[in-house]
Structures are given as C-alpha cells and as structure tokens.
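Quick one: structure for this chain?
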Amino acid sequence: MAIETMSPLSRWVYALKISSWPKLLVPFLLGQGLGASAVGELSGWGLLTGLGFTVGLLVFIVLLNDWADQEVDRIKRDMFPDGCSPKTIPDGILAANDLLLAAMAFGALALGFASLGDFLHNLPYLVPAGLLCLLIFVAYSLPPLRLNYRGGGEFLEMLGVGLALPLFNSYAQSGQWLSSAAGQILPA
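Got it. Here's what it folds into:
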C-alpha cells in the first residue's frame, strides 16, 4: 500500500479497520434479538438507538486504540520495517491529534444515542450503561489502568462484547434491564 498516494477518505477508511467491526456488530445483533424476543416485537427506535450507539462506540474504540498504542506501534515499525501492516500514526496515515479528536467525537455521539433513547423511551439506565461500555475500553487502553498491557485485556474484552454491549442493546430494544431472554444466556 502506497501511503503517500492515499486520499484523505481512504486514510480514514483504513484507520476504521472495517474488517474488525463484526466483533461489536454481532453483540449488537445478539442484544437486539434478545430484547425483541423478550417483548415479542422489534422496536425501530430501539434498533436505531442500539445501532447508533454501537457504531459510535466501535469508531471510538478503533480510533482511540490506535491513538493509545502509538508508542507500541512505533516500536513495531522500528523492529519490523517491512514485517507488519501499516500503522496509522507512525506511518503517517493520520495525525495523532486527528485520531484523538475523532475518537472523542464518536464517543460523544455514542452517548448522544444513549441519551436520545433515554429521552424518547424513558430508559434511565441507558446512559449509565453506555458510559460503562465506553469506560470498559478506557480501562483497556488508557492510563492509569491500561489493562491490555497487564494481562486484563481479554477479561475486559469478554466483559464488553460478551456482556455489557449485548445487555445495552437488549435494554434499548425491550426497555427491560434484564429481560427473560437475556437471563437465559447469563451464567447462573
């Protein structure tokens, strides 16, 4: 890939790592399905709220992860000049400040969708649940915890994609915090 010939749009598309999106879109679908199953119908607003939140969260995670890992990515680039994929910041695909600003904007967008869902459907736990989803990633990548470098990354990933995001989406869809359908997949 010739980085210097990439258009601004293709640089952002590269940074968004679209091939990684199923990691969050599958838990979105699971939660939406559990919520719809619990109430016997599919809410278009619940679907839109959940999708908007999930996409905002996803972009927040992908971009902020590149920003948080820029030092490690520089080390990888120095150690393996031709042996790894292009690194967003060290290889000059995007500037660190641009990634950080975009990540913050998409985190705010995610919380905006949670707030909209709360406002339109009186779901008082939606914003705290959304904030928890964002904070799980913050604990994963950012100081002072930065648990992905301390052996806690897999646990936080499991907590985020295996529990928090499906429950957020189930609640957005059904209005029930722990629907009977969600209870069937949770450990007893």
